Amino acid sequence: MKLTLEIWRQPEAGAPGRFERYLVDDATGEMSLLELLDRLNDALVDGGDDPVAFDSDCREGVCGSCGITVDGRPHGPVANTPSCRQHVRSFRDGATVRIEPFRSAAYPVVRDLVVDRGALDRLITAGGHIAVDAGTAADADAEPQGKDAAEYALDFAACIGCGACVAACPNGAAHLFAGAKLLHLGTVTRGRQERGRRAKALTGALEDEFGPCSSYGECADVCPESIPMTAIAAVNREVMRARLRGKPD
């Protein structure tokens, strides 16, 4: 199987970038997109050229490290599937495939297909956590949690933090990501204790780092864990709740 790859090459942050064309003539349908890039890099290194830089780790769809844009779509052509689980069989033999980094003002390019997703980390630092003083954590069975509530929290805890939602959004919003954190942490017993403070902190960081949400819906379509758009509604709801209560929880 032959594929022509148009890949974004950028030597470093701030440097001009460009698309370069490469031919891979020994691809197979069962290859993932990352394995396709591996095959290309083997050929580039053998020829004395610089390999294409890209992020990856577990390659099992659970770590959130990988992230490329394929023909204008974050992760690739198959909905709700991470880059490492997208396969070459999605393309016809002889096709030209354009591969570039996640595109968003919040994601500056570091090199080639690698972007700095530190803005998501700053959201987590602002409020995507439960504050527990070291040495004071309660026993696991000391704070009962109903099964339905636990399952609901786990549905939103499934977010792997890949950031494709931001790259897919025309506004560069991160409300799907932030809403998943708010619903997850605001549902569990210990997390409810600082629910209002968390909502205010997360939304403040959202405004500083990302664009506004206009509910386009592209975010939910590319999310590898199929986080629903109800997470977006949670952002405004949680902030309104905190304001009506008048003080942080």
UniProtKB/TrEMBL annotation:
Keyword Metal-binding: yes
GO biological process, one term: aerobic respiration
UniProt-recorded Gene Ontology molecular function terms: 2 iron, 2 sulfur cluster binding; electron transfer activity; metal ion binding
UniProt xrefs under InterPro entries: 2Fe-2S_ferredoxin-like_sf, 2Fe-2S_ferredoxin-type, 2Fe2S_fd_BS, 4Fe4S_Fe-S-bd, 4Fe4S_Fe_S_CS, Beta-grasp_dom_sf, Helical_ferredxn, SDH/FRD_Iron-Sulfur
Source domain of life: Bacteria
Ranges where the 4Fe-4S ferredoxin-type domain occurs: 150-179
Domain 2Fe-2S ferredoxin-type as annotated: residue spans: 1-103
Pfam families, per database record: Fer2_3, Fer4_7
Cofactor(s) annotated in UniProt: [3Fe-4S] cluster; [2Fe-2S] cluster
Keywords: Iron, Iron-sulfur, Metal-binding
NCBIfam families: PRK07570.1
PANTHER family for this protein: SUCCINATE DEHYDROGENASE (PTHR11921:SF41), SUCCINATE DEHYDROGENASE IRON-SULFUR PROTEIN (PTHR11921)
Entry's family note: Belongs to the succinate dehydrogenase/fumarate reductase iron-sulfur protein family.
Protein name (database record): Succinate dehydrogenase/fumarate reductase iron-sulfur subunit
Provenance organism: Mycolicibacterium brumae
